[in-house]
Amino acid sequence: MAHYFPARLHVLLARDAPVSVVIRRGPSKRVATFLWDRRTDEFQLGQWFRGRIYERRCDLSPDGKYLLYFAMNGLWNEESEGAFSAISRAPYLKAIAMFPKGDGWYGGGLWTSNTTYWLNEAGEPPVLHKVLHDTTEVTRDREFEPPERFNRQCLGVYYPRLLRDGWSLIERIRVSDDGEDWERKDVFEKQCPQGWVLRKVAHSALKHPEGTGHFWDEHALVHPQSRCSQVCLGWEWAEVDGDRLVWAEGGCMKSADITSDGLDQPKVLQDFNDITPKRTKAPY
Fold first, then answer.
1. Which of 19, 72, 110, 116 has the most CB atoms around its CB within 10 Å?
2. With left for phi above 0 and alpha for psi between -120 and 50, is residue 212 left, alpha or beta?
3. How confident is the model over 102-147, as pLDDT tens digits?
4. DSSP state of 110
5. Could you tell me which residues are beta bridge partners of residue 63?
């Protein structure tokens, strides 16, 4: 009997604007993007994509206008070369700039300003992108380099993004290096209102829980002074948004105010589970 898994959600928060892009995955080869207005908690469909968008290699410009993403559609003999990095106008996926890769190493990148971006390339010899088409709306930042290269897959973009956005890397734990059983976990923390701390345990493992990928996160809310803690089971993504916490759980986006006693009554902002794919054109 097939198992039912809720929609998988990952969110990119604009640093200087109250908007976000939600990346919704499910089934495994179908992905949709949504614009989230965090002032009104309204969600607007962007576009669907047939393939895989690697959410940990994506980034949203500080003003929320542009999306940089890494995707694999498996069309190896077409102009995208099966895997590519692209820039679009959020929340849509139609590329205004596309950079074919042809493999799954590196790719994606980070925004260094509202109109400049870094593409994730490295290695000896370097693993480079090609240029299928470009744009003058934004330009590539060839001077920027992340303070640390974590790996040549998702963490090479994801961890620098977390550190840039106010998370602190507390501990790196190597669980196992034993062949097919390799596993590690890295602990990040972010300060919350009322003295609480949001803890993120980022897992990397070849063998992973059913319904997740090689990289997945767990979360807890802890209060160092009172030694209170709340394990947030099922939270696959979480962030601090002003005086509230926002998170993804069971295919839903949720929020709750942070009080001195912990989280107030959670609210479901949007249920992303029962959504039927449909063709949507970008307005550009």
1. 110
2. beta
3. 988 899 999 999 999 999 997 666 678 999 999 999 999 999 999 8
4. E
5. none
